[in-house]
Design goal:
With 88 residues, the chain is mainly alpha-helical. The C terminus is likely disordered. The protein is elongated. The strands form two sheets. It has a two-stranded antiparallel ribbon with strand order 1-2. The termini are far apart. It folds into two domains: 53 residues, no CATH class; 34 residues, no CATH class.
Length: 88
């Protein structure tokens, strides 16, 4: 038996919160992160997660995190990459 529409939305809400917390734990904040409201009302299997928009510094920080070069305790990429330069 499949999930109800309400259960799918709730599961997506939980995933968004886990993603928000995980990203925050490595110094990345996506202020527009949310469930896409249009897909909640539709007949898709699961609502889409809208990662939203972010500024250049946050985009570069996310790149550094994905590359494994971001140092969250220092607040800058390991090796002095572009995100710290973008802050000045």
């Amino acid at each position: 038996m499949g999930l109800t529409a309400e259960e799918r939305v709730r599961a997506t809400e939980v995933a968004v919160e886990q993603l928000r917390e995980g990203l925050a734990g490595v110094g990345v904040v996506l202020p527009s992160l949310r469930i896409d409201p249009l897909t909640c009302a539709g007949h898709v299997l699961y609502p889409l997660v809208d990662l939203g928009r972010c500024n250049l510094d946050m985009a570069l920080r996310l790149v550094a995190v994905l590359a494994g070069t971001y140092n969250s305790t220092e607040g800058a990429p390991l090796g002095g990459g572009a995100p710290s330069a973008a802050r000045s």
